[in-house]
Amino acid sequence: RAVQSVGEDRRGDGITDASGLGSETQEELSLEAGMEVEVLWEGTWYLATLLEVSADMATCGARYHEGRDEEFAIDVASRIRQPRPPWVKQGLRVEAEWEGNWYAGRVLFASSTGRTATIKFDEESEVESGVDVTARVRPLEGAEEEYLASRIRLEDLRVGQKVRGTVCSIRPFGIFVDVCAQQDGLVPKARASEEFIEDLSWLFSLGDEVDAWVSRVDRRGRLELSMGGSKVRRR
């Protein structure tokens, strides 16, 4: 089995399939202009920036990252949700297809869009980058349970607690950090640095080890982190 090396795309806006994913309800969202969200359009979720929000938060207007098109009077309850990390996570055991056969391995890194991943195969410890997740990757049976069992429970984290983790995804709206918890933590763009950073990939790279502080754990199991001016320690 040959090993192909393809560079990862860390900054793509990405499109997430809507199948099996429920939308947020407007009571669970706190929206404001300038916020990054995902908008449902014809069965697919697209990243967008909010331009305006009605006083009752029932409708909003947004500019899509892809194509820069604008849409208004979007129903929040059925078509807006907060961005979510890809299902492929650093450390998750998976199977990857190669020439019709499936091989077991572990995810080393996932691209920001979740479309591609770097896989380290159990067989001969070979590593392949740029693996198409949709076409060639599937989770091993019991892998998600094993992954969660080895992780810190979200209920054991406290606001203000300092954590150390690894940057596992870089998105236009923030970075996801693997802090060995049951859910990767999101550091919103505004909380990633004390100074304004136009492109987070200028400051961070996949695999960077960073210090962060827990700022919020909500009832839907989302973990939000803050970094401020914390320094990045590269591996």
Automatic annotation (TrEMBL):
Coiled-coil region: none
Domain of life according to the entry: Eukaryota
InterPro entries reported for this sequence: NA-bd_OB-fold (IPR012340), Ribos_protein_bS1-like (IPR050437), S1_domain (IPR003029)
PROSITE patterns in UniProt: S1 (PS50126)
GO biological process, one term: translation
Gene Ontology molecular function: mRNA binding; structural constituent of ribosome
UniProt source species: Alexandrium catenella
Spans annotated as Disordered: 1-27
Protein's recorded name: S1 motif domain-containing protein
Gene3D superfamilies to which the protein is assigned, alphabetical: Nucleic acid-binding proteins
Ranges for domain S1 motif: 160-228
